[in-house]
Description:
The chain has 444 residues and is an alpha/beta fold. The protein is built from 14 helices and 19 strands.
Amino acid sequence: MRYNVLIENGLLLYPEKTEKKTIGIEGEKLRLLPPGGAYEAERVIDATGCYILPGLIDPHTHPVYVDDLGAISTPALFGGVTTMIHYISIKPGDSPLQVIHAARENAEASSHADFAFHASFFDTLNQLSSIPELAREGIRTFKMFTAYAKLGWMTGDYALIKAFDTIAANGGMACVHAENGPAIDFLEDKFRPITPDNFPATSPGMLDKEAIFRTLLLAKLTECPLYLPHISSRKGLEALVLGREEGVRFWSETCPHYLTFTWDELKERGPLGKLRPPIKTADDRDALWTAVEEAALDTIGSDHAPKAKTVTDDFESAPYGAPGVETILPVLWELGVNANRITPFDLVRLCSEQPAKIFGLFPEKGRLDDGTDADIVIFDPTCKWRIEKANQHSNAPYTLYDGFPCRGKIQKVFIRGRLVVDGDRFTGGKAAGKFFETHPGTLM
Ligand SMILES: [Zn+2]
């Protein structure tokens, strides 16, 4: 047997163990080999001193704005993210199937990373009849908003429970952006003009808690599996505890920016840090870290939504969102592993194995098992560097992490056996990203 690549002397990371194994890449798959054997390969990589991680799976990306379906894959791979589950917006009047087909065609032609899709409904009552046909095409997760009432994107309770009922009947999973939209709209009207100083008052965590708990109960009533992205507050976490008490089947995510920043630290950057849900207080950040440490949150998603914003833009009219897909791993390693909040085991559970299992991409993705897709990140935990706009690959004109010091750096990234990131160089060649159907709800 002659392998395409051998990766020797690295320490393979799993959620429950490390293993010293040689990885042999055979086409698109990885083989686990006893270390020290005499193997033949076209190329041998010495990973002494490095961890070997399974490629990260980012369950929360928005491939619109300044990074499209192709462009987003470059920062993703530089960040060790080999698979993304993109939110594909289905706007009022759109044909859901046509939108999904176009996105798939576009991504197959332009994405270097692998991908799956969530369908985002912006007009749920008129769009939920597409759930069965979308499910047949491998799109089985459906996003709705309880926020954004004034914008007309909100799904009210009637439509929400009806969608849950349909999703459950079709083997799918609901993903809900849960904040109380009408109450936020009222508070915005009350405090207008909205400034960095009064922004937090428009979105108190209490309104997360109300919407998350309501969503959990509606999911329970319909036996619909539920995924709650971007939990951002202590109050939101309290709702998850209540949901567990009610026996709801759900999974939850937070994002690196909620674990990194407080609004007090960020507000001088004005529009750049304007996100939805907003970044909140040090107390919220502490509560989120505790939840991550205690495995009360299941995944980490980037909510990558890069916009062309500058610090001097008008705050009130600035759009929500920031880039993030490239910084998940270095930021979590620095603030989580290096700060002794989580272990490297936790990190691969949160960022690879759990998202693969929750969305049914397992076992091809998410874990370094023999015969799985060779999505591999070689990570040097000793290398010191700083995140700077200049070393990032998103088209966004800024990163919230500018100047952020890191110990631990990605050295190489493989996707399905191909070396796509080699140090600072992109070696991906022609786009070869592959679409994956999701199979949510198979994990109990
Ligand atoms: Zn999002």
